[in-house]
């Protein structure tokens, strides 16, 4: 019979799947993080099931200025009312969640891919790499972030891809600074010296030895930064620089109805509640992950 043996405990502890499972179990001990997970998962389900649960097409013109709870002609109910064009606000909020949960994670992921790579090279290579990348980051960070967003979007035009581009360019330098600081500490650890002794390449050491050991602060920052990105998309939509109409955009919904908020407040309030609740869920999740990182 073949000898089947388990990997040594040290290798199990470094397995990313084992780490993820252990973190998920620890999350049960943080009620704050658990509430955050439930809120975020609820919005993810809403976004996935948008074609099924939305009571009306998001751009269908029905009856304008109907308050919440008004029966709809032909059956159904306007649970959150309708806007000035007669579009069902609940349907637009549901479809807007789908747009936000596509572009916000994509923009955050692109910003992290660029920022982490820059930070690893700056912190590990030092010298010319550090000087050049740090100066590029300083130049970008010297611009007010909202002005930078507006310049990029107005230059290339409002679209989902250009929002991703703007968030990536504006957020990557901040991520680079965080990663660089972590790498400056981790590059002097014994496991890095052991990898260097084995003759491992710099890319292997940066991405296999150093990056996994910096995951705790980066995961927490990613949750917070994802919330900031959702707010950014809302702000750009409010300024008319978000997703082009008629696509439902939470910020754009607020912008379109703000002049009528005094006599039809439901048109503005519900998109704002959607943005706030999703960002709140991500912030609570980040707090829970911070607690986990102290126990893990």
From TrEMBL:
<dbReference type="Pfam" id="PF00528">
    <property type="entry name" value="BPD_transp_1"/>
</dbReference>
<dbReference type="InterPro" id="IPR035906">
    <property type="entry name" value="MetI-like_sf"/>
</dbReference>
<keyword id="KW-1133">Transmembrane helix</keyword>
<keyword id="KW-1003">Cell membrane</keyword>
<dbReference type="Pfam" id="PF12911">
    <property type="entry name" value="OppC_N"/>
</dbReference>
<protein>
    <submittedName>
        <fullName>Peptide/nickel transport system permease protein</fullName>
    </submittedName>
</protein>
<feature type="transmembrane region" description="Helical">
    <location>
        <begin position="263"/>
        <end position="286"/>
    </location>
</feature>
<dbReference type="InterPro" id="IPR050366">
    <property type="entry name" value="BP-dependent_transpt_permease"/>
</dbReference>
<feature type="transmembrane region" description="Helical">
    <location>
        <begin position="100"/>
        <end position="124"/>
    </location>
</feature>
<dbReference type="InterPro" id="IPR000515">
    <property type="entry name" value="MetI-like"/>
</dbReference>
<keyword id="KW-0813">Transport</keyword>
<feature type="domain" description="ABC transmembrane type-1">
    <location>
        <begin position="97"/>
        <end position="286"/>
    </location>
</feature>
<dbReference type="InterPro" id="IPR025966">
    <property type="entry name" value="OppC_N"/>
</dbReference>
<keyword id="KW-0472">Membrane</keyword>
<feature type="transmembrane region" description="Helical">
    <location>
        <begin position="31"/>
        <end position="54"/>
    </location>
</feature>
<feature type="transmembrane region" description="Helical">
    <location>
        <begin position="222"/>
        <end position="243"/>
    </location>
</feature>
<comment type="similarity">
    <text>Belongs to the binding-protein-dependent transport system permease family.</text>
</comment>
<keyword id="KW-0812">Transmembrane</keyword>
